[in-house]
Specification:
CATH architecture: 3-Layer(aba) Sandwich
Number of domains: 1
Structural class: alpha/beta
CATH class: Alpha Beta
CATH topology: Rossmann fold
Distance between the termini: 35 Å
Shape: globular
Oligomer: single chain
Strand content: 15-25%
Length: about 230
């Protein structure tokens, strides 16, 4: 199989998600946005992980301390953020103070502003063109870092891949639930191709992943992120 550079795969996945979000929002595309982390622009990620970035800055200047504490880097390939609309028009809203002034002043959602709009990080996506055993472990480590280091609710944590081998897909899709789900960019075509091989082991593996809801087509991803 001709390999695709990882960065290009990330770019295509980002484009696909933004096109899908744009259609879902009637063509506006304002509420949902997928942002590639390789562009060094991460709106919304600060709502849960701002302190981690501060720690990484300190550790980068102190190798000895970094060696003792370890590296808790956050390295998703793509983050999905959503514009939050808050309305305080109801005078009896319990989130107002005694003078009728909107409260909720310490929530990270109202403190995170990008272009004057509150944004919340909703998903972290790991893009893997293919899966080797070491890369599967890297993806799990990234997921665990996101879970352990958050200050707030856990974002959707998923992986997108074009890996054709069921055994390698299983190495990442099956397990303890570090990932919410795994998505394949050509799942119907992959299932059909595997069935044509007549390999009972491979057929059983791919059917286990699909029927067990551990592997889905990438077309399902925008819908799943909205839930």
């Amino acid at each position: 199989m001709i390999g695709m550079p990882e960065e290009k795969f990330i770019t295509h996945t980002e484009w696909f998600l933004n096109e899908a979000f744009s259609c879902a929002e009637g063509g506006s595309g304002d509420a949902w946005q997928a942002v590639s982390c390789c562009k060094n622009s991460l709106p919304g990620i600060e709502d849960k992980y701002a302190y981690v970035r501060d720690i990484q800055t300190v550790l980068a200047k102190n190798p000895t301390i970094r060696e003792e504490l370890g590296d808790n880097a956050l390295t998703p390939d793509i983050v999905v953020v959503k514009e939050i609309e808050l309305s305080w028009e109801c005078e009896s809203c319990p989130a107002r103070d005694g003078n009728g002034i909107p409260g909720a002043g310490t929530t990270m959602v109202t403190q995170t502003k990008v272009v004057d709009h509150p944004l919340a990080m909703c998903a972290a996506i790991s893009c893997k063109w293919t899966i080797r055993s070491d890369r599967a472990q890297n993806t799990r480590t990234e997921a665990l870092n996101l879970i352990r280091n958050r200050k707030g609710n856990t974002p959707h944590i998923v992986a997108v891949t074009f890996e054709p081998l069921p055994s390698r897909l299983s190495s990442l899709a099956l397990g303890t639930g570090d990932l919410d789900c795994m998505y394949h960019v050509a799942l119907p075509e992959l299932v059909e191709a595997i069935r044509e091989t007549k390999s009972e082991d491979h057929i059983e593996q791919i059917e286990t992943l699909v029927k067990g809801r551990r592997l889905r087509d990438i077309s399902d991803l925008p819908v799943d992120l909205a839930i």
